[in-house]
Amino acid sequence: MTKEPTPLTAALLNPDVNMGTKRPQLTWDLVWEASDVSAHVRRHLLRVYTTLGLMVLFAAIGVLLDLRWPVDPAITGLAITLPLLFAIMFSPPAWLAFRLTSAMLLATSMGASIGSLVQRVLALDPALVGLAFGCTTLIFVTMSLCAYFATRRASFFLYGLLVSALLVLLVLGVATLFLHESFLVYLSLYGGLVLFSLFVILDTQLMIERAICGEDDFVWHALDLFLDIINIFVRMLTVLGLGNDD
Questions:
Q1: Residue ranges per structural domain of the chain
Q2: pTM of the entire predicted model
C-alpha cells in the first residue's frame, strides 16, 4: 500500500512542470503538519515560547539594572534566584499569576547576576554582546528545530549521558577554582557550550512528550529552556571575550 506524501513533502518535492502553474507556497501550517505536532501541543508551545520570550526580555532588563546599579552576583545569582526557583518548583500550576511573577523576577535576577560579565565584555568590544546573543539565538533555534522534526523520543537516550556530563561539568567548575589550569577552564567552557546545546534538544522533546501526555505546566517548561539559553549565552560571551582579550 502506497503511503500518501505529507503536504510539506508535496510542496518541496513536486516542482512545476508547467511554467504557467503557480508554485505551492511553503507555509508554517505545512511545517507544523510535517512535524506531527497536534493542535493542543501547538497551543502549549505558543504559551511556552511567549513566556520564554518575556523571560529573556526581563533578563535583559536585569542586565541593564545591574550595569546601572551593580549588585554582588552572589546576591542576585543565589540569594534571590534560588528561593524564586523553589517557589516555582513547589507551587501548584493553578497559581498561575504567582508562578509567572516569580518566573519574571527570577529572569531579572539571573540577568542581573551576569551584569558584571556583560560589563567586562562591553569594555572589550560592545559588538561582542550582540554577537553572543545572535549566536545563542541561532543555536537555540537550530536545536529546537532538530527536536521538532526528529523522531519522537529520539533524544531520550541522551538523558543519562547528559546528566552525567552535567555532573562532570560541575566538578570541573569547582576544580578550576583551585587548580587555575587554562586547560580545565577551556574544557569547562566549550564542554558546557556543547552540553547545554544538546540539552535544548532533550528539553524540547521532553516538553512535547509531556504536553502530549496532558501536562500543561508551560511556566516550568519555559524555565527549563530559559536556563539552557542563559548557560549558552554566558559561555558564548565568555569565549568571545577571551578571544578578544589582549
A1: 39-243
A2: 0.80
